[in-house]
């Protein structure tokens, strides 16, 4: 933008600037008062030659005389504008553009979900697996910068999705969860832990988390869950375990019988330096995932970069040009005419 462009004189342009020396702007109204004070003194102490009216009373100056009278304001006006522009330049108008960069050290999370046939029980509506699937999708949707993977297990355990930040793909896998994914019956908790820890052990993330959700005892697989859980600490993996379903079920004779011993899931969480949760409805399951979401948040670092550009040069040039114009008016015959 050239310095002589009217863009620099627009009020919107002047308002958009950041002024490094704002005190200089306060001097602009002061210059107006100085000119007014000078005018008052000039009228009071100016020597005047009185001439008799000779019958000219009531005669008003013509259009040309009024025009010449207004031209007398040109010199002080030019001087004042010059001073105003120089003060604006002294205030250092700047354009400041802020660039924000958010950096986060992501967390690697493996979800190990039980897809055995018992997960179709309806004590969680519509059933345990559907409730877990829905809440897990919401958990994934709330993460940022974190890699998340998925392990499914029943009588065997499979790594369904590796650690990824492709949350859309991960939610697609979660929507497709069903007992048909693993034909082998049983609950291989030890194998599921081993699959998850194996995915996390070589992770570059400083925080590694394994969330295991199941509704039964370890009844299948070749690995002891407690033995596998002991391996989590050397690999810096934290384990959260979630037991879904009611503590007991009513048998045919009307008595209450325990569905499974949750002690093994508690022990796994304790060895994995995490927490154990028991949930009996969808609301509790949401609260558990929300708590894990709060506990496992990576710090976010915000860096703000400022691009500062000084814009005083156009106003400095305007001020110098008007000052030279004022001096030319004062030191030419035209200046004398305007004064008289």
Automatic annotation (TrEMBL):
Source organism of this protein record: Fibrella aestuarina BUZ 2
Protein name (record): VWFA domain-containing protein
Keywords: Cell membrane, Membrane, Transmembrane, Transmembrane helix
Keyword Transmembrane: yes
This protein's record includes keyword Ligase: no
InterPro entries per record: UPF0353/GerABKA_families, VWF_A, vWFA_dom_sf
Pfam families in the record: VWA
PROSITE patterns on file: VWFA
VWFA domain sequence ranges: 108-292
Signal peptide: none
SUPFAM superfamilies named in the record: vWA-like
Record field: transmembrane: 23-41, 70-91
Gene: batA
